[in-house]
Amino acid sequence: MKPLRAIYFDCFSGVSGDMILGALIDLGVNPAVIRKALKTLDLKGYKFKTSSIQRGLIAGTKAQVIVDTSSRPVVRKFSDIKIMISGSGLSSNAKKNSLAIFKRIAQVESIIHKIPVEKIHFHEVGAVDSIIDVVGGVVALEALQVDKIYCSALNVGEGFVECDHGCLPVPAPATLKLLKGIPSYSNGIKRELTTPTGAAMLGYFVDSFGSLPSMKILGDGYGAGDHVIPEIPNLLRVVLGEMSAEYEENLILIESNIDDMNPEFFEGVMESLFKAGALDVYLTPIIMKKSRPAHKISVLTTQNNRQSLSEIILHETTSFGVRFHSVGRTILDREIKTVKTKWGLVKVKIGQLKGQVIQVSPEYESCKSIASKRKASIREVYDQAMSLALGKYGSV
User: Fold this and answer.
1) Does the structure show a pLDDT above 70 at 126?
2) Whole-model pTM?
3) Closest Cα to residue 141, out of 183, 195, 172, 100?
4) Which CATH number fits domain 333-393: 3.40.50.1980, 3.90.20.10, 3.10.20.300, 2.40.30.60?
5) Whether pLDDT at 249 is above 90
6) Alpha-carbon dihedral of residues 270, 276, 280, 283, nearest 10 degrees?
């Protein structure tokens, strides 16, 4: 059974787009892969450079974009960046991820400035170096072919920062909105440690925030920030490792008790929650005060989806509030196989623990589809698929 490849971002000195890119290159991603991808973008007047640099007692890689200052600076709208990335030679997955990250930034800027998303003018984020940071980081992660991405809480810094918008408090307003649902803190350093680009990238990619999960360490890398900070090494550390496919993870359970809503509406709410990334949604009949019958809706999700899923419950139900708490989960290694019944191919879910098959389950929707087409009962299809799967793949 193939182990899962996982990466952990250790943000003890915050995170920025160039620190992510530098750390992934330091970990082992070939800069030539990044340069090849960047050449497919309609960007001119820059050089992409990497160098080893010391921050405190630790050496890391600095990813640097040197822009031709003689050329006139370009202020790009979100629509301009969409056209650039969509028309590039990036893989379809890299295009999708890059655009999703820029959209996250555009959406929070839209809220802050009360301007439609398509009309948002990027300043720092629209600059050549920021486009390279985002696209380069996306391409680097794709090259690593990781299955899971984890991250520590983010050190955001404090104080004030000067930017195109003027003097802003740290974290900057855009960064603060992008940090929704992400564990964050400041250890008192008077600098901007987490940037909008860094927050947007990790907020998009990370499956779970917390301590370093149990893994066999394969490698590590350090991405250097721009400034020398006396208190701590200004570096982002990334750790690459392998995890057993039957692994434990920390999740969030969101719950709400609802006693005054038409039960027919729950189906639509559950669909919305699943579409937004819920891992599981279920209803439990309960009795509330004054012996009122009610339903408890429970939603299992990762930390970074907590806020958005909570808002769906508040918008689409009659609930006035939700509660949530951390839960642990251990899962089997899951694989979808097929078996050939006399009615046709049926998908079967195989669950393994430490390399041994211990669960075999025909997929209901697959059985239903075959049964409907071939005028058979679902039970007949299911039973034959189960028998064939047990014989082919084995179980306890």
Assistant:
1) no
2) 0.70
3) 100
4) 3.10.20.300
5) no
6) -20
